[in-house]
Amino acid sequence: MLAKCARLSPRFALAEMRGNSAKILHMQNFNWEEVDQRTRPHCSPLITFSRGMAKKSKNKVVDKIVENLIDDDDDELEVVDIQNSQLNKFLSSKAPGGAAKKGAKGNVQKMSYSDFTEIVKGERLWSDLNKTVEQLRSFYIQQLTVRSVTSLDELEIELEGDIFPLNELANISKKDPKRLIIDSSAFPQATKNIMEAIRDSGMNLNPQQDGFSIFVPIPKVTKEHRENLVNGAKKKMNESKNEVRRVQNKFSKIVGEDELADKVTKDDAKSAQETIKLIAEYFQGQAEQMLASKTKELLGK
Length: 301
Known about the structure:
By secondary structure, the chain is an alpha+beta fold. Among the domains are: 81 residues, no CATH class; 71 residues, Gyrase A, domain 2 (2-Layer Sandwich), CATH 3.30.1360. It is built from eight helices and ten strands.
């Protein structure tokens, strides 16, 4: 059985589905021997299911759960190891930036993992935000250095709706110690985008074009060059924070729509949106920390 897992109400431990039938097993009396070996390590707090149409159950609650799973917007649901989920750890955390704030008026009360993920696709939210911040980390490590010009290989270039690393679209020659020579003749239509990507990279580079050849002078490592690189790092960090806000707004909007459709209560919707904001602020803080560390590195401090 090819098993998929998703979190369910705590009073159910497992739903095992084969073909067009479904069987919900209560936590108190389910038989672990019936659980697929590949699924067992992950599914003690989960529901296991396939995409087939579920057999109608006398239990309307079960019917509703199965219906919601089948009608999920995603074609595939990933296995979630709740115990090791970073989102779960964040929502359970007592540390600053991840703590549930209680008591004083105006403070935000974080939702529990189970309550939050009943309203919001929390793991998807976390994944999208984490991806944004990891892209910033990758850029800082692989491309933004005092010798950035030697790190153009992985510079992302947009071409016909897709993103490619520069070294897949052009030949990069590093034989000249004073400049890079980029030959874009293999994909001439990418030449303009390559020029724009280099200029907008935040690497303090000034490319020059001659036909399908692009010449990128290697700047001297001066104080001014270092400061320009810091400005480029800030620009990239702000772009990442804007993307974090975009993801935050996307998920908050869905919660708002569910509230209008009476799928969630007003109080639950408010709590979910506040929790989404807390998670987004956590990732924005991660981006700011990366910038602070990168700034010291670029300035040689």
